[in-house]
Design goal:
heterodimer; A: alpha+beta; nine-stranded mixed β-sheet; 22 strands; elongated; B: two-stranded antiparallel ribbon; 6 helices; globular
Chain lengths: 856, 224
């Protein structure tokens, strides 16, 4: 008994009584759904913020107060530019920088990335914030400390992790070459926080020697005098540096890794939207059902003098109680979910940007998001039900035909929903019809609206008791339709929730599969099935890839196992203020063993262009810069600017700004002296191939070598991709749990409101098994229908996300739809639906037969 | 038949022993809470008795397993309640055919039986209608038709006219009596309405779970 001397307001008291005593299960399930959405949303927000913070800290630490950055990609900025820029009026300081990723050579932390930054300690103080200390004392003249070429100062975090200190030797590798540096002190201040603390600094000229980039800097960061206009200073600098160098305000370049990282981040937010949509639909359905179930109570309250507005507020109080409890539980569960979500972004960040994320922390935006998801959306979802409750008259109980009127009233609205949903989905589907973000939003909203509207119409049209179900399913088929039609709006919403979830799963799996499939197809299609792809490092591991060293290539050539070898080199060059990648292509080897058709629609044209030593551009490049085949462009090289003609268009990866391909001989001539990196090689080994590959794998090498071959490689790539899929398992499991909850809430609601009907059936001779079958088959039908809609809508969403991904990473990804996946989704949905229906069904069998004979 | 309600033990039906011959139209009267409905539930096998037996023909319905009792009821016992006699989402004809549909029959094969019953009850014009489109009296007629479609040995009705006006009530009692006589069906009607007794072959009065009076009892003799 609730009440008595309680000081709680009457509406809260009555709401609590109703929730706890009368509809404990449905309220509990709704609270669970709200809690899931809240915890998922809060976790993704915290993890995303940690990622943004990691990227921002790194950028800020490296850039400091610099307003402008001069770069030339991998070609590097000539040293003499530094002095010229320093003399430009308005320039406060020009500070060069080189960055190299080295790896711990041995011990427990072998393979761990260490970002070594080369700085000019004399000129850097106006740009970046850091301090160097030794034995706990800050050293003002760091140049003296780092005078010796092998000296390095380590961040305290990294030094502590490795257990080393002043004077200790640090064994590292740089692109496979062994290096030994001596720790001379501790790097502190803002810079020490970059890359999650995996950072060390050394004198820039010493690093030039170590990295073999004498006479070049990676970039020059420019701080501008406080009273000067940045635009004006930039214009003066552009005159001084000429067109071969890029001057930009984007201190951290947009890279392939960053684009992919953002895509992961967006994928997680997509899960939040799916969860939010499901819990909102569920709240709406539950609020709506509770009105009908509490009709007696609400009518009585109206009769007793409560006005419509008060009844409406009573319903809103119900949803508020659910929202508050759900939000509190969600917030409490958030740290657990956060661990999984953070893991995904953390690993992705480590792999793609080699940045380890800091500890995630709760902040004001997290709390605001939790409150928005948990309270605002839930109460908003309950508003229509509250409005309906406010209109309940004192004689509502006498209106025995209300169910049918309700169905007819919503039919037109459902048709409108279907039409609007289809139109939005069409807008999302048509390629390039709208910006990607708009297409994604239109796709999600359209998919949900279409599924709900279509579900309602199908139920209205085909779930007739005398229809096909009655004919096909003996004994109880004629009673399944009424189970669905009893609550057409709520059933349609549950179908929409299942559709959203199924479509989300199909989209996620299809996008990952299409992404890995496109990489797979690109290399094995281009170089042929017999090619063995060589990488230095596990491409799906957390340590990232290294450039393949010349020593490794020599070792391979000398092994006697390699018949032919095609080096796939890449170089980053500035172009119109952005960094693009030029990749070498072994045209002759591909002509003999592979197929150029895999990178373009016109293989002959592509081959001819490559033979003519012309550039082949990918689609993103053409779109980004408005360049067409036949145009000429100028690219910088160490030997000076070079003019190339664009000879053909093709597909290819490396950055949202696009990429360019060049035949290997032309590439070597143009960029051999520049810092072109060998990321990958295609090998053709001597027969028997298996034996040769195994021999190469056993070969002693300073670098970790990965040899991927044909179908075996595909399986391996697929297995590695599973790792990412597995990381998504927690959000996916949560969202699937929501599907279960939404179905159970609907079935609990319908069985509860149909208690008398079931009682009558039992009295008329229906067995318990009949009742269980009616409810589980009804639930399964909802699950299967939702999953079929979801597969269809997921196919459209996949097309949109692949197009979006293509735009983000500059690689044309064609969605690979799978009938096998569709089959699994339908079977999975049916199994979850049957399991989800069983509890409400078993509870329905406990309805005592005599209920039907009692006064309503 | 013993219930527990709020920790207290309630003897809803106690020491009832009676025999009703086939084809008799019996009216059971009594105040609210006298045990009428519980007696009906025990006879229909809807409740398990704490002790005792209930034979319908040769079958002890109380000894049957739950699913067997369901099946027995589906094939032999027609039930009519005061409220909520019809499934709201099914048409009149499907509501009538309900027990046979649950038994695996197909609607097209039941048309002739439905036609006959609908005509008998004067409901031909309502065949395709939904329950909410019927009056209270019409709803009870459909419930009676549903009870009759299985050609039952026994019809049990719990306050079948409790929701109807006096004219409709008389129509229903008259109909039940005629059907009982014409088809030889045993009909037991639980009601508190005195008017019902004039249609009955036998009248029982219940009080505190016991049979307080029985018109067939040579001691009572008179109609209660």
């Amino acid at each position: 008994m609730i009440g008595g001397s309680s000081r709680l307001p009457f509406s809260i008291l009555i709401s609590l009584r109703s929730q706890i005593s009368d509809r404990f299960i449905v309220s509990g399930l709704t609270v669970l759904a709200v809690a899931t959405s809240v915890s998922l949303a809060m976790s993704v927000e915290v993890a995303s913020r940690a990622l943004q913070e990691g990227l921002r800290t790194t950028t800020q630490a490296l850039v400091g107060s610099a307003a402008l950055t001069i770069s030339a990609g991998d070609v590097g900025v000539p040293e003499e530019v530094l002095a010229r820029v320093g003399e430009v009026p308005g320039v406060l300081s020009a500070s060069p920088l080189i960055r190299r990723t080295m790896r711990v050579a041995s011990g427990e932390h072998q393979g761990r990335a260490l970002h070594v930054v080369g700085l000019d300690f004399l000129s850097d103080s106006d740009v970046r914030r850091y301090e160097v200390s030794r034995a706990g004392t800050v050293v003002r003249d760091a140049v003296r400390l780092l005078a010796l070429p092998n000296s390095v100062v380590l961040s305290e975090a990294f030094a502590t992790e490795l257990g080393i200190g002043d004077g200790d030797r640090l064994e590292l590798t740089l692109e496979g070459r062994p290096l030994e540096l001596v720790v001379r002190g501790v790097l502190g201040g803002e810079m020490a926080e970059a890359f999650g603390g995996q950072i060390a600094a050394m004198d820039i000229f010493a690093l030039q020697q170590v990295a073999d980039v004498l006479g070049r800097f990676e970039r020059i960061d420019v701080a501008v005098e406080p009273d000067q206009s940045i635009d004006e200073v930039a214009a003066r600098i552009e005159v001084v540096i000429g067109p071969a160098l890029a001057l930009g305000r984007d201190a951290e370049r947009e890279t392939f890794g960053l684009a992919l990282l953002r895509t992961y981040q967006r994928a997680l937010w997509a899960f939040v939207i799916v969860a939010l949509a499901t819990s909102t639909l569920l709240t709406y359905a539950v609020s709506s059902m509770s009105i009908d179930r509490r009709l007696d109570e609400l009518t009585l309250l109206r009769t007793a003098g409560m006005d419509g507005a008060q009844v409406g507020r009573l319903v809103l109080t119900d949803s508020l109680v659910i929202a508050v409890v759900g939000t509190a539980l969600g917030a409490a569960a958030a740290p657990v979910v956060l661990r999984a979500v953070f893991g995904i972004l953390s690993i992705a960040s480590a792999v793609l940007r080699e940045i380890e994320l800091g500890e995630p922390r709760l902040a004001l935006p997290t709390i605001a998001l939790g409150l928005f998801v948990g309270i605002v959306t839930v109460v908003a979802a309950a508003l229509p039900a509250a409005r309906r409750a406010a209109r309940i008259g004192p004689f509502e109980l006498l209106d025995l035909g209300r169910g049918t009127i309700h169905f007819d009233r919503t039919r037109r609205r459902a048709a409108l929903f279907s039409l609007v949903g289809a139109a939005l989905l069409g807008l999302a589907w048509v390629d390039y019809a709208a910006p990607s973000a708009l297409r994604i939003v239109a796709g999600i909203a359209g998919g949900i609206a279409l599924a709900g509207g279509l579900g309602h119409q199908l139920i209205g049209r085909y779930a007739d008791p005398a229809g096909w179900m009655g004919r096909w399913v003996p004994r109880i088929g004629f009673l399944i339709g009424p189970t669905l039609r009893a609550r057409p709006v709520e059933t349609a919403l549950t179908i929409a929730a299942w559709t959203t979830i199924a479509a989300g799963l199909v989209t996620g799996v299809t996008t990952i599969r299409s992404y890995t499939g496109s990489i797979d197809g690109y290399y094995y299609g281009l170089y042929g099935e017999s090619a063995v792809i060589l990488l230095a490092g596990d491409p799906f591991g957390s340590d990232g890839l290294e450039a393949i060293s010349p020593a490794t290539m020599e070792l391979l050539r000398a092994s006697g196992r390699v018949e032919e070898l095609a080096e796939i080199r890449g170089i980053e060059v500035p172009f119109r203020g952005r960094v693009i990648v030029v990749t070498s292509l072994a045209t002759n080897a591909i002509s003999r063993r592979g197929d150029l058709a895999f990178i373009g629609h016109d293989p002959e044209g592509t081959r001819a262009a490559l033979k003519r030593r012309e550039l082949v551009m990918n689609e993103s490049f053409g779109q980004r810069f408005g360049i067409r085949v036949g145009d000429s462009i100028v690219l910088p090289s160490k030997g000076g600017p070079l003019t190339f003609r664009i000879g053909a268009s093709a597909t290819g990866t490396a950055g949202s700004s696009g990429s360019l391909l060049l035949d290997e001989s032309a590439f070597d001539d143009a960029f051999a002296s520049s810092a072109a990196t060998l990321w990958m090689a295609a090998l053709w080994v001597v027969s028997p191939e298996n034996e040769s590959v195994e021999a190469l794998r056993r070969m002693e090498s300073a670098q970790p070598l990965f040899l991927l071959r044909g179908k075996e490689a595909r399986r391996w790539v697929a297995r590695s991709a599973e790792k990412y899929r597995a990381m998504l398992s927690v959000p996916v499991a949560l969202v699937c749990g929501l599907a279960l909850v939404s179905l159970q809430a609907l079935l609990f609601g319908t069985t509860r409101s149909r208690r008398r009907e079931f009682a009558l059936l039992r009295a008329a001779g229906a067995t318990r098994a009949n009742v269980v079958a009616i409810i589980t088959l009804g639930g399964s039908l909802i699950g299967v229908l939702g999953s079929i809609f979801g597969i269809a809508i997921g196919a459209i969403w996949s097309a949109v996300t692949c197009s979006f991904l293509s735009e983000s990473i500059g690689w044309k990804i064609i969605p690979i739809q799978s009938t096998e996946l569709a089959g699994w989704v339908v079977v999975g949905a049916a199994v979850i639906a049957v399991l989800g229906s069983l509890i409400p069904a078993l509870l329905a069998t406990r309805v005592r037969e005599v209920t039907g004979s009692q006064t309503p | 038949m013993v219930f527990r309600r709020g920790g207290d033990e309630v003897r809803a039906v106690d020491g009832v022993s009676l025999s009703i011959p086939s084809g008799q139209f019996v009216v059971v009267r009594g105040r609210s809470g006298s045990g009428k409905s519980t007696l009906m539930h025990l006879i229909a096998g809807l409740r398990k008795a704490t002790a005792g037996q209930v034979f319908v023909g040769d079958t002890d319905i109380q000894s049957l397993a739950v699913s067997d009792a369901d099946r027995f009821r589906r094939r032999n016992v027609g039930l009519i309640f005061q409220f909520f006699n019809l499934i709201p989402s099914l048409s009149v004809e499907m509501n009538i055919a309900l027990p046979l549909l649950l038994d695996g029959f197909r609607l097209p094969h039941l048309r002739r039986q439905i036609d006959e019953l609908i005509a008998l009850l004067g409901m031909s014009h309502r065949r395709e209608h939904a329950p909410h489109e019927l009056s209270g009296g019409e709803m009870q007629r459909v419930a009676i038709a549903r009870a009759l479609i299985i050609k039952p040995a026994l019809i049990l009705a719990d306050e079948p006219t409790g929701n109807l006006d006096s004219r409709a009530s008389e129509e229903i009692f008259s109909l039940l009596r005629d059907l009982s006589r014409e088809r030889g069906v045993t009909a037991i009607v639980m009601t508190h309405e005195v008017e019902a007794t004039k249609y009955a072959d036998r009248v029982l009065v219940m009080n505190d779970g016991c049979i307080a009076a029985d018109s067939a009892d040579p001691v009572d003799g008179q109609t209660p």
